Amino acid sequence: MKISILIPAYNESRTIIEILKKIHANKDKNIHEFEIIIINDGSTDDTEDKLIKNKHLYNELLSIKKNSGKGNALNLGFGKCTGEIIII
Question: How far is the C-alpha of 5 from the C-alpha of 83, rounded, in Å?
Fold first, then answer.
């Protein structure tokens, strides 16, 4: 069973890397397959730069140029995820 983790992010440069590290550190040993998709929703800080420098912490980064809201970001992520279970 594959799990998809969708993370909409807007100006999360202070916490995004820590969050991703915690996901990996707390991953259930029985879950063999999961993906992390981050949707950068028009951040104006250095969220995207930090993510690009830490590509090993996620599977896919989607970027929206102008902030369009959590719902729109999640809809974009839903179109890309491949897991049977989706966690937001």
Answer: 9
Maximum CA pair distance of the chain? Answer: 38
d(CA 45, CA 76) in angstroms, rounded, equals: 21
Q: How far is CA 2 from CA 17, 39, 40, 82, 86, in A?
A: 23, 19, 23, 8, 9
Q: What does the DSSP 8-state code read for residue 24?
A: H
User: What pLDDT, on the 0 to 100 scale, is given for residue 64?
Assistant: 96
Note if the pTM is more than 0.85. yes
2-87: CATH architecture: Alpha-Beta Complex (3.90)
- Name the 3-class secondary structure at 40: strand
What local confidence, expressed as pLDDT, does residue 26 receive? 83
Specify whether the CB–CB gap between 9 and 41 falls below 8 A.
yes
